[in-house]
Design goal:
binds flavin-adenine dinucleotide, alpha/beta, single chain, 2 domains, 13 helices, five-stranded parallel β-sheet, FAD/NAD(P)-binding domain, 433 residues
């Protein structure tokens, strides 16, 4: 292991949109804190395995990494287009929202400005709080897979959410069963392994599920695509402007202040603003694709609705999936060369589709006998060690629907975290003066 040279004021783990927005806010708002980010990927990327041709983003492009906080910043999406020399061409596009490929370029372009403070190819694997016996101030020690070690007075954790793997797939260790996070490389592997005769199952009723069904069903080397959803049909997102106020900063206050019972009620009502549902453009395309295949007498694309997953058994000639059509109680079994779980992500908490802690903080929490993380309005968590520790982009269960699954609040969330860091690090410095 390499010996760490300095103690950073702020160490960010993960350099996706959440911590890129933080890097911008630290540069624009803070007074010279020393900052380092760790990113396990070899370079900047945003959801690289889901950059499907023609797919668009689901947020207004001005709700980018910085505009809602500082529209005059050089890091806005508008300035990105301007500096690329394609502002007019972009504004002339007959699209409701920008292409995901273009937004991914914007994210990478922004990340590149901060290259000097990001260690790429560096996956954090352990986080430990250290209190030196010589009276020096406490700090975190973070170890990475490549042997590098980093010390810091505060931590901002932004690793993205943990994939949700439904029960029948939870214990299956097989490269033919993959989460949507791996879709494009998994598809390439499966097509190659089957000599261009690939059978694919897509589990779930999310936006990603519908996009993958559309992509796979016209991809060469694929001979069968079956979508499974437990819903009656693929559902449209709730795009009412009234519901979309969940992406307002004021909603974060409303949600954070609500009781557990009221949070659950709000979530139940508003979940389809982003989850288990899709935009109408891709739903219409999927419906027409299905109809077109019926006209041509083809059976490449099938959609099995009202189906609960009950089993998954890998074998040499395919992965067998068992599903139960709940209306008739009939079990359907079918084998596939690739099973894509478009089944979403976990939130923090003790309920269904939740995990109690981000993996990297689990051992510290257990050591300090913390059962439940209390996440303050400024995204700070108390791990019982006094060190400023923040969660950036993991807080839907405490801060509402706009937190993890959307860009909408990234810019303002970074501002909250930076302001809290400034006051907490200053307080700690004074107490050790
Ligand atoms: C397919 C897809 C499409 C989406 N499209 C939209 C959209 O159009 N609009 C929208 O508002 N939202 C969209 N979202 C939601 C989107 O995930 C978030 O808006 C955004 O990516 C969250 O950023 P993040 O930085 O919190 O997480 P991520 O984007 O997941 O970034 C986390 C980063 O941390 C790194 N990392 C993880 N663990 C470690 C570790 N231990 N050490 C070092 N690095 C680590 C990862 O490599 C990654 O780069 C989409 C999500 C998906 C899955």
């Amino acid at each position: 292991m390499s010996a760490p040279e300095k103690i950073f004021d702020v160490l960010g783990i993960g350099f996706g949109p959440a911590n890129i927005a933080l890097a911008i806010a630290l540069e624009e708002l803070s007074s010279g804190m020393s900052v380092q980010f760790l990113e396990k990927r070899p370079g900047p990327a945003w959801q690289p395995n889901m950059l499907l041709p023609g797919s668009d983003i689901q947020n207004h492009p001005l709700r980018d990494l910085v505009t809602p906080r500082n529209p005059r910043s050089r890091y806005t999406f508008t300035n990105f287009l301007f500096e690329q020399g394609r502002l007019y061409e972009h504004l002339n596009l007959p699209l409701h929202h920008p292409l995901r490929a273009e937004y991914a370029q914007y994210i990478s372009w922004t990340a590149d400005f901060f290259e000097h403070i990001v260690a790429y190819g560096c996956e954090a694997v352990s986080v430990e709080a250290v209190t030196p016996s010589n009276g020096e101030s406490a700090h975190y020690t973070v170890c990475c897979t490549d042997g590098r070690v980093f010390l810091a007075r505060s931590l901002v954790l932004a690793p993205g959410r943990t994939p949700h793997i439904p029960a029948p797939f939870a214990d299956v260790k097989d490269r033919r069963v993959r989460h949507l996070n791996d879709y494009m490389p998994a598809l390439a592997e499966a097509v190659a392994a089957t000599g261009g005769q690939c059978r694919i199952a897509v589990i779930g009723g999310s936006q990603s599920a519908v996009e993958i069904l559309l992509h796979a069903s016209c991809h060469s080397g694929v001979r069968e695509v079956v979508g499974f959803t437990r819903n009656f049909g693929y559902r449209q997102k709730d795009t009412s402007p009234f519901s979309d106020e969940v992406y307002f900063p004021s909603f974060v206050d409303t949600f954070h202040n609500a009781s557990a019972e009221h949070k659950a009620r709000l979530r139940q009502e508003l979940v389809h603003t982003n989850y288990s549902s899709s935009d109408i453009d891709v739903l219409n395309q999927l419906y027409v694709r299905k109809y077109e295949q019926m006209l041509q007498g083809e059976g490449l694309l099938q959609l099995r609705t009202c189906e609960d997953m009950v089993g998954c058994t890998p074998a040499s000639d395919g992965v067998q999936i068992d599903s139960r059509q709940y209306l008739q109680g009939i079990i359907h079994s079918q084998s596939f060369d690739l099973v894509i779980l478009a089944t979403g992500f976990l939130d923090l908490g003790a309920g269904d589709r939740q995990e109690p802690f981000p993996k990297l903080l689990a051992s510290i929490a257990r050591e300090n006998e913390i059962d439940t993380l209390i996440i303050a309005r400024d995204y700070r968590v108390d791990l019982g060690n006094g060190l400023p520790t923040y969660l950036n982009g993991l807080c839907e269960s405490s801060h509402g629907m706009g937190d993890a699954g959307s860009f909408s609040l990234l810019a303002l969330r970074s501002q909250n975290i930076v302001q809290s860091l400034i006051s907490n690090l200053a307080v700690r410095e004074q107490s050790h003066a």
